[in-house]
Amino acid sequence: MKIAILGGTGDIGEGLALRLAADTPHRVSIGSREAENAENKAEEYTTELESRGLDASVEGAENATVAAAATVVVLAVPPYHVGDTVEAIADELDDGDVLVSPATGMKRDDEGFHYHKPGAGSVTRIAADAAPDGVDVVGAFHNLAADRLANLDADLGIDTLVIGDDEDAKRTVTDIAEGIEGLRALDAGGIANAPEIEALTPLLINVAQHNDGLHDLGIQFT
Of 96-110, 167-181, 203-217, which range is least confident? Predict the structure, then answer.
């Protein structure tokens, strides 16, 4: 399967690109608004993978280019860019493609990080509202620590919650997620449940900042 990670030059994009390329048989590409940025980062990721003796690589190009060639497109962009990004690539998407939204709206004050719930109800809902007909949206990878994900020496041993209104699309993303070693995907229902999941991310950051030894915190349900 061809997977495109838009915003793949950022922290969460880097972690997903490296893990998917290292652990799964899928073809991974990263996108950016500037093709040169994506190409340079893809070369860095490929060098990292090859240094570990892995027969894997990552390709890079402008967002629309990688989206056009992919079946699954991950929106690893800041939450306030999600809607615009979907609209910008809409013409490149085909019926049956799946968009994956890992973004969470947050704000920070002197007390810490807080969930910034958008008017649509969730960032995942923003993506779903912007998606063209025939393209389903699934929320996943919200609560993963980017540094831990990008460190291929780190054991994950954590869960990701998957939400979506189409069961086939949700199953596709679940299978992709569970291809990453140490990551378990759990079904958390439909997109209506996205606010509860997205709100966990600032909680995890706050707990990690206030407790020694809990850097790059994740969730495991038992």
Answer: 203-217
β-pairing, 136-139 vs 158-164, is antiparallel
Q: What are the φ and ψ backbone dihedral angles of 145, each rounded to 5 degrees?
A: -75, 120
Return d(Cα 43, Cα 46) in angstroms, integer: 5
In angstroms, rounded to a whole number, what is the distance separating the alpha carbons of residues 56 and 91? 29
Pairing of strands 106-109, 112-115: antiparallel
What does the block give as tokens for 144? 């993963």
When pLDDT is cut at 50, 70 and 90, the band that residue 215 belongs to is confident
Query: What pLDDT score does 213 carry?
Result: 83
124 SS3 class: helix
The string of DSSP codes covering 145-156 is: -HHHHH-TTS--
Q: Tokens 């497109």 map to which residue?
A: 73
Residue 180 clears pLDDT 90, i.e. is over it:
yes
What's the confidence (pLDDT) of residue 214?
Answer: 82
Contacts 24+ apart (CB under 8 A), 48-54: 48/18, 48/152, 49/18, 49/21, 49/22, 52/22, 52/152, 54/21, 54/22
